[in-house]
Amino acid sequence: xxxxxxxxxxxxxxxxxxxxxTALTLTIPSDTNGRPANFALMTVETNPVRxxxxxxTPVAVTTGHxxxxxxxxxxxxxxxxxxxxxxxxGAADAALEVxxxxxxxx
Length: 106
What we know:
The protein has 106 residues and is mainly beta. The protein has 1 helix and 7 strands; from the N terminus they run βββββαββ. The protein has one domain (16-103): Jelly Rolls (Sandwich).
């Protein structure tokens, strides 16, 4: 089984999002040297969501990648973090837990 990329990063912040029927974006923190996060580990805590990173806005039931409660997503790259959008996929709000970091350099 491959090792999680989260073990290869320096954590620099976290965020908990309540995902409702309006698409949300991430609030990306920077490290003490002013470098923005380039990695995020996200877990869906409750209820399904849909997400995109291609500039489109996710739409419940029809548009975007679906994540169910208990699913995790590792997202790499500053551009991908900046373009990430998420919306709930159903009638009930979802909770998304996000830990941000900078990937360790070899």
